[in-house]
TrEMBL record:
Domain Histidine kinase residues, every copy: 323-534
Membrane-protein topology: Multi-pass membrane protein
Protein name as it appears in the record: histidine kinase
Enzyme class: transferase
Listed CDD domains: HisKA (cd00082)
UniProt organism field: Pseudoalteromonas neustonica
Length: 540
């Protein structure tokens, strides 16, 4: 087992290292980098486009000074760079020539072409400015500044149309609302009136780990506010896609070696299960296969060792039973023959009485040998049963007829319930009922009551007597082989101690149960209960 666990640890470590060295680099370049590039371009859209358009109208030598003047109103650093086409790939050049933002998350930069000579460069700082609360405010403060400045140059009644025209520069929604239209808390409204940027989080923004879904700022000297967002509808899809790919890759490549490790063990379990079923069917020569690389081979070896011991035990048991059959029956027959010779050669009443006692003991020994052979045969293999539909009232009446004739002093009563058809193997069920009746005759006093009925799930036969009964604590033990509830009492009535054990075996073949409980007559009531599904099995 230790070796198996060490092997599992090795393949897990090997898988993690392989993922880190081989899979993760491809994930970074093909999934994570494009996603972060898109997010960088998405969040810098709008403000970058508006700023680039403003810079186009400013002379080249004044642009740096202008950026330094407005820098404090942006949450990231602004700078200019000479546009050298050789510094960019053909794809990047094509992208920039269309006046699109090119994000580079590895360098933490974003580029936007101003003209053929200069680029606007956005540098993301590592820390959020102290006067801001979260990352969302940092990304949006530049957009609020530029939009407010543009609106301040126009009458308020033109603001909605201006916002509509400028919204094309943004990748996320931009709206103009009044303070009275907002459904925020009083504290948030108070913050807006001070000119602060208020951010609103939602379940979607929390899911993707973004600080907020909506950013709002009040326009000075008006009752209007600029609302940016929500951002999550587009961000969420990208983030979910990236995380799904990551967890799939990690889980898949880690799961494969574990599955490879588990397959031999799974095959061993299938083999053990198959062999266990065969052993249950009495095929004691069945053995579990040793699967190569399986971590359960030690269990298979132990199981096979157990099966071999069981097979040897069954074989020795069978040999012993056969020996009992031959070695005991032969001397018993000789003793019976000698008894007959002695009986014919003596007239002494005392000697004849002793011969009768010896013959009774021999008969009991003969019965014990027969019952032992029957019980052993039933334990070793289940016979082929032939189920047939019988009418219980008529069948039980026929079974009781011979017993009543043989025991005229016993009052045997059948409580008839009308016509009741059942499915049984008549040969073996007759043996079970006969054993119960003989048990009731032996341990009862003078009255036996037999009843039957159709139950919800099948059928029930009850045999009750007026004897001393059986304590509830021994209700299960009486069906064990050779169990005797009262040793002194059993010496008087005889018996082999196997009758009820055979009854339990027969009911087991019928998929039923044999049980005992106190009888209304004062003694014990033995019950045979078996299910009705046998009808469906036989008819199909």
């Amino acid at each position: 087992m230790k070796r198996s666990l060490l092997f599992l640890s090795f393949i897990i470590i090997f898988s993690v290292v392989s993922i880190q060295l081989l899979v993760i680099p491809h994930f970074e370049s093909n999934v994570r980098y494009p996603t972060e590039k898109w997010a960088l371009e998405f969040l810098t859209s709008g403000s970058t486009d508006l700023l680039a358009q403003q810079l186009q109208s400013i002379p080249k030598h004044q642009r740096i000074a202008y950026l330094q003047t407005i820098q404090a109103n942006f949450g990231f650093e602004l700078t200019l760079q000479d546009y050298q086409q050789n510094d960019f790939s053909s794809e990047q050049q094509s992208w920039l020539s269309e006046d699109k933002i090119w994000g580079d998350p590895q360098a933490d930069l974003a580029y936007r072409k101003i003209d053929n000579e200069q680029l606007l460069v956005i540098v993301k700082p590592n820390t959020v400015p102290k006067h801001l609360v979260n990352e969302a405010q940092r990304w949006m403060m530049g957009s609020f500044y530029l939009l407010s400045n543009i609106l301040a140059k126009h009458p308020q009644h033109n603001w909605p149309s201006i916002i509509d025209s400028l919204s094309d520069n943004f990748s996320y929604p931009v709206a103009l609302m009044t303070l009275s239209e907002l459904t925020y808390t009083k504290q948030q409204i108070a913050q807006l009136k001070t000119g602060a940027i208020v951010t609103i989080s939602t379940a979607d923004s929390n899911f993707i780990g973004y600080p907020a879904d909506i950013a709002v700022q009040h326009i000075k000297n008006s009752d209007k506010v600029i609302v940016l967002g929500p951002f999550s509808p587009q961000l969420k899809g990208k983030v979910v896609y990236m995380l799904s790919i990551f967890y799939f890759i990690f889980g898949f490549f880690l799961l494969i070696p574990i599955i490879i490790w588990l397959i031999p063990g799974w095959r061993s379990m299938l083999s053990l299960n198959k062999v266990a079923i065969l052993l249950g069917q009495g095929k004691f020569d069945a053995r579990a296969k040793l699967i190569r690389f399986s971590h359960l081979n030690h269990l298979s070896k132990t199981f096979n060792t157990m099966a071999e011991k069981i097979q040897r035990l069954i074989s020795s048991h069978k040999t012993l039973i056969n020996a009992v059959s031959h070695e005991l029956r032969t001397p018993i027959a000789r003793i019976e023959f000698n008894i007959e010779l002695l009986r014919n050669s003596t007239a002494n009443n005392y000697q004849l009485g002793q011969l009768e006692r010896i013959e009774l003991s021999l008969n009991e020994l003969n019965s014990l040998v027969s019952e032992m052979l029957t019980h052993a045969r039933f334990e070793r293999e289940i016979p082929t049963l032939t189920f047939a539909a019988v009418e219980l009232n008529h069948w039980i009446k026929q079974e009781l007829l011979c017993l009543q004739e043989a025991n005229p002093d016993i009052d045997i009563i059948l409580l008839e319930q009308g016509v009741c058809h059942a499915m049984i193997d008549t040969f073996y069920m007759s043996r079970a009922l006969s054993n119960l009746m003989r048990n009731a005759i032996a341990y009862g006093r003078n009255r036996i009551q037999v009843s039957y009925k159709k139950t919800v799930k099948g059928w029930l036969i009850c045999v009750a007597d007026n004897g001393d009964g059986i304590p509830l604590s021994n209700a299960e033990k009486v069906f064990e082989p050779f169990y005797r509830e009262d040793q002194s009492r059993n010496l008087q009535v005889g018996g082999t101690g196997l009758g009820l054990a055979i009854v339990k075996q027969i009911l087991g073949w019928h998929e039923g149960t044999a049980s005992v409980e106190p009888s209304s007559l004062g003694g014990a009531c033995f019950m045979l209960n078996w299910p009705a599904k046998r009808i469906h099995q036989e008819s199909t």
